[in-house]
Specification:
Length: about 270
């Protein structure tokens, strides 16, 4: 397969280690040198947790979902845009790329709406739980990203967006990345994790599922696919069902996997297709 445009969702331990960050930046430069357009989308979980703790803002959770107050949202935005995004742009520029830092708010790149969490109480009744400034993406305008790519810039996008009234929301990074990948019609959507793919029997490398179709995925929920892997897989399914040619789970702690898969076309990680 020929790859011309890819989107990489960057997160996990690969965001914390300086050596890994440099390693990934170098691989992205290799991709660009091969004529491949690259968009990077990132979250910042560990950095957000540290910033909220430093600010003395306590987090409340509902069924594992964080409630984000207006005060917390302000702190999260400062962290994602002012710290994480800025440092990634600087790092990529040092490696010879022309990186441009963005969020979903810039140029109305992404429009959000408030997310409500639905929970079931002890009587079996469904309740809507207000998660504060937590949102979902309802529309993506790819024009800004496409314009940057056509002029050899590398967009680096963090997962914040506003609604039509200007209210800011924190968006799950995996969900955000999958929506952007679909909007730009990426040839591949690569999700960097801390493992080498989906395992039937972790950590046996022989049990990695090398390719899986979207129709087969539901039977793996609760077993092979659990915890933090669920939103990643859901974003992959959404992306390929919306026109992305393939989604791939790779190990971000091994930066060489990026070029091995895209350039050398080595069958590694887990590829998700229709």
């Amino acid at each position: 397969m020929e790859y011309r445009k890819i989107l990489i969702k960057y997160g996990g331990n690969a965001m914390i280690s300086e050596d890994l960050k440099v390693g990934i930046a170098k691989k992205l430069k290799v991709l660009q040198d091969h004529g491949i357009q690259v968009v990077l989308v990132h979250g910042g979980g560990p950095f957000i947790n540290n910033s909220l703790a430093d600010a003395g803002i306590k987090s409340e959770f509902f069924d594992g979902h964080r409630h984000t107050s207006l005060e917390a949202m302000s702190c999260i935005e400062k962290t994602l845009k002012g710290e994480v995004n800025s440092s990634l742009v600087n790092l990529l520029n040092k490696q010879g790329l022309k990186a441009v830092g963005l969020s979903g708010k810039d140029g109305k790149l992404a429009i959000a709406q408030k997310r409500w969490h639905i929970r079931t109480d002890e009587n079996g009744e469904k309740q809507k739980v207000d998660l504060g400034q937590v949102g979902d993406i309802i529309n993506v305008n790819p024009l800004l990203i496409e314009t940057l790519l056509e002029n050899d810039f590398s967009p680096v996008i963090t997962c914040i967006a506003s609604d039509e009234e200007g209210n800011d929301y924190n968006i799950n990074g995996d969900v955000f990345a999958g929506k952007i990948a679909a909007a730009i019609s990426a040839d591949a959507y690569i999700v960097l994790t801390d493992v080498d793919g989906l395992y039937k029997d972790y950590p046996d490398p022989a049990s990695i599922l090398r390719e899986i179709d979207t129709a087969t995925i539901p039977k793996y929920y609760g077993g092979v696919i659990s915890g933090g892997m669920i939103p990643k897989i859901e974003s992959c399914v959404s992306a390929v069902e919306s026109g992305v040619k393939e989604a791939v789970i790779l190990n971000g702690t091994r930066p060489e996997q990026i070029t091995d898969f895209i350039i050398n076309q080595i069958k590694i990680g887990t590829t998700i297709k229709l």
